[in-house]
Amino acid sequence: MDESHGSAVEWLVPLAFSLTFAWVVWQGPGFILTFG
Fold it and tell me: Rounded distance, CA 30 to CA 25, Å?
């Protein structure tokens, strides 16, 4: 079970980055200009 949990964390972290990147791209330049 411990190994499964470790694997989950290993793919959840990059998944979170991917979702964040996709969301920023979807928002467009407006988001970058607002917080940039």
Answer: 10
Query: Can you give the residue ranges of every domain in the chain?
Result: 2-35
Measure CA of the first residue to CA of the last residue in the chain; give whole Å: 42
d(CA 12, CA 1): 16
Question: Which residue is listed with tokens 């969301």?
Answer: 23
- Tell me, what DSSP letter sits at residue 3? H
CA distance 19 to 14: 9
Give the pLDDT confidence of 1-36 residue by residue, as tens digits. 566 667 888 889 999 999 999 988 888 777 667 776
CB 18 within 8 A of CB 12: no
